[in-house]
Amino acid sequence: MIQPAEGEPIEIQSYKHDGHIHRIWDETMILKGTQTLMIGGNDRTVVTESDGRKWVTREPAICYFHSQHWFNVIGMIREDGIYYYCNISSPFILEEGALKYIDYDLDIKVFPDMTYTILDEDEYEDHRKKMNYPLVIDRILKYNLENLQNWIRQRKGPFAPDFIDMWYERYLTYRRPRI
């Protein structure tokens, strides 16, 4: 697929290991797009769940995807600071006009003071058994969970000071007014 240009919208599709769609974000504006890195921004975008239920995001967010890391990071800009929601996932691919990845349930929620909580460990174990995750995938995911925690502690990548603010400013330059 041709790399989407900066300022262009793209759909984000999250799948489960068994190939079923998990969640779709209708529109995220590409702020940086290379073969290995995608940074996007969205605000009040429509999200469709696997059961067809739809909802709209409440705050601006900057999304970080990398083709060589088994996680992605969403920095949500709220009045009291930046909250991060991190998904342990497959690296992203671009296919059929969308950014796609497999969500592997394990998540980390990071608070503005950079403390964090690991979420959904029970859900991960349940899906690991039901969907028969190969041992190599289990090891890759657990390694990347540790790697992601190191990034948080070291303020690396999307956790670096001013990273979200810088990309949000860029997002505002591309954002089209809503009618």
What does this structure look like?
The chain has 179 residues and is α+β, with helices and mostly antiparallel strands. It is 23% helix and 42% strand. It has a single domain (9-159), classed as FomD-like (FomD barrel-like fold). The two termini are 31 Å apart. The model has no long low-confidence stretch (mean pLDDT 95).
Cα-to-Cα separation, first versus last residue: 31 Å
Number of H/I helices: 3
Residue share in β-strands: 35-45%
- Estimate the global geometry from the Cα principal axes: globular
The percentage helix is: 10-25%
The total beta strand count reads 11
What is the C-alpha radius of gyration, as a whole number of Å? 16 Å
List the defining traits of the structure above.
single chain, 179 residues, alpha+beta, FomD barrel-like fold, ribonucleoside triphosphate phosphatase activity, DUF402, EC 3.6.1.15
List the helices and strands and how they pair.
Layout: E1 9-15, E2 21-33, E3 37-42, E4 46-49, E5 54-56, E6 61-66, E7 71-78, E8 81-89, E9 93-95, E10 98-110, E11 116-119, H1 121-130, H2 135-154, H3 163-174
EC number: 3.6.1.15, 3.6.1.6
Family: Belongs to the Ntdp family.
Protein name: Nucleoside triphosphate/diphosphate phosphatase
